[in-house]
Structures are given as structure tokens and as C-alpha cells.
Amino acid sequence: MKILVVEDDLSIAMGIEYSLGQEGYEVKVCGNVAEGKAYIENEVVDLCLLDLTLPDGSGYELCKVAKENRDIPVIFLTACDDEVNVVMGLDMGADDYVTKPFRIRELISRIKSVLRRHNKTDSTKAIFNYNNIRINTLEAKVYKNNKEVQLTALEYRLLLTFITHEGQALSRNQLLEGIWDIAGDFVNDNTVTVYIKRLRDKLEDDPGNPTFITTIRGIGYKVGR
């Protein structure tokens, strides 16, 4: 789980980085709007912690980028606890705010709460679109170029595992867990390889050079940015 911290106070940023690292999060620290914007646009981020006042602009600017990029959850870190600033941030789509000075345990609790809410919302989305691929989870149907693609139950469950973890690199064990209740003892490491190949054959324009289900060397596979 990757968290972006945009904070120009180095002592605060380093304290957050250390504490979140102890909790198992991967943390990237940026000190201004320009660095934060570039990182959001080029990397997969699971949550942003944004200082409101930055040397080259405002955390509001980064919130807008985060929400337009992939609806990334945002928590503001602000010394301003007046109603106007709080309401403005929440109206822009921020998921929460924490007023400085804060206790690190409170911040971690807020992070976990926001991630739970966000993941629950994502998992209940009805329609997923990826270029020429559309997945309707209410109808359990998959389309490529507006033509329905027939998937087996195991293929569809594997695809659901990917799209409910959009942008996240999933290991073979995580993928096995996602399809275990359908195939039980019949699934193994080779099963994942076979069914990923089948999905690629059905959904990729060029299965030999996949752009939808991509391989992350040494880790596993992912769908999306």
C-alpha cells in the first residue's frame, strides 16, 4: 500500500514516513506541489496526505489532481481548523482532514478508516472501463469493442480480483485466494498462469504484448496504472 506525503516541514514529513513505514506502508515524501503532481501522474498511489499550505501552491491543487487521476483518497494535514478551510477541502472531494499538531496514532487510524471506506466503494462499482474493455459487475458481463466476451466462472472471478484491486500489483498467492472458493483444491500456481493466459487471449489486442493484464517482474500481475 503506497502513501504519498506532500509536506514542506521536513521534521513532520520524516516523522510520518517513519511511523507509516513501521505500519507496513510504502511512503513517498514530496516537499511541494510540483513534485507531488508529477508523482501522482506517474505512479500508483493508494492515498495522499496533503499539507494545505505549500511553498509553490496549495494542497487543494493536488487534491484536484488526485481525484481526477484515479479518485485517490485524500487526507489534508492542516494547521487551519476553521470551518471555511475544512468545508472547502471536503467539497473538493477530500476524504478527511487532520489538524496539526496531531498524534500519529490518530493519523494512522484516520488513514485506515479512509482506506476501508474507499475500498468498499470501489468494490461495489457496477461498471469498469479500460480503453476498449467494459465490465458490468451487475450483469456479470464483459465486453470488448462493445461485443460480449464469454468467460468461464473461474476466468470471470479472476478478472474481478484484478479490477477490485485496480493499479495494485497482485502476487500469485493473492490471485489464488481470489478464486479459491470456486475451484478449491483444484487451483494451484499453474492454474493462475493458465487462466491469465486465457484472459489475455480473450481480452488483449495482442496477447503476446499485453497492456491490460501486465506482468510485474518478481511480484505478479496487475490491471490498470
From TrEMBL:
<dbReference type="InterPro" id="IPR001867">
    <property type="entry name" value="OmpR/PhoB-type_DNA-bd"/>
</dbReference>
<dbReference type="GO" id="GO:0000976">
    <property type="term" value="F:transcription cis-regulatory region binding"/>
</dbReference>
<keyword id="KW-0902">Two-component regulatory system</keyword>
<dbReference type="Pfam" id="PF00486">
    <property type="entry name" value="Trans_reg_C"/>
</dbReference>
<dbReference type="GO" id="GO:0005829">
    <property type="term" value="C:cytosol"/>
</dbReference>
<dbReference type="InterPro" id="IPR039420">
    <property type="entry name" value="WalR-like"/>
</dbReference>
<keyword id="KW-0597">Phosphoprotein</keyword>
<feature type="DNA-binding region" description="OmpR/PhoB-type">
    <location>
        <begin position="125"/>
        <end position="225"/>
    </location>
</feature>
<dbReference type="GO" id="GO:0032993">
    <property type="term" value="C:protein-DNA complex"/>
</dbReference>
<keyword id="KW-0238">DNA-binding</keyword>
<dbReference type="InterPro" id="IPR011006">
    <property type="entry name" value="CheY-like_superfamily"/>
</dbReference>
<feature type="domain" description="Response regulatory">
    <location>
        <begin position="2"/>
        <end position="115"/>
    </location>
</feature>
<dbReference type="GO" id="GO:0006355">
    <property type="term" value="P:regulation of DNA-templated transcription"/>
</dbReference>
<dbReference type="InterPro" id="IPR036388">
    <property type="entry name" value="WH-like_DNA-bd_sf"/>
</dbReference>
<protein>
    <recommendedName>
        <fullName>Stage 0 sporulation protein A homolog</fullName>
    </recommendedName>
</protein>
<feature type="domain" description="OmpR/PhoB-type">
    <location>
        <begin position="125"/>
        <end position="225"/>
    </location>
</feature>
<keyword id="KW-0804">Transcription</keyword>
<comment type="function">
    <text>May play the central regulatory role in sporulation. It may be an element of the effector pathway responsible for the activation of sporulation genes in response to nutritional stress. Spo0A may act in concert with spo0H (a sigma factor) to control the expression of some genes that are critical to the sporulation process.</text>
</comment>
<keyword id="KW-0805">Transcription regulation</keyword>
<dbReference type="GO" id="GO:0000156">
    <property type="term" value="F:phosphorelay response regulator activity"/>
</dbReference>
<dbReference type="InterPro" id="IPR001789">
    <property type="entry name" value="Sig_transdc_resp-reg_receiver"/>
</dbReference>
<feature type="modified residue" description="4-aspartylphosphate">
    <location>
        <position position="51"/>
    </location>
</feature>
<dbReference type="Pfam" id="PF00072">
    <property type="entry name" value="Response_reg"/>
</dbReference>
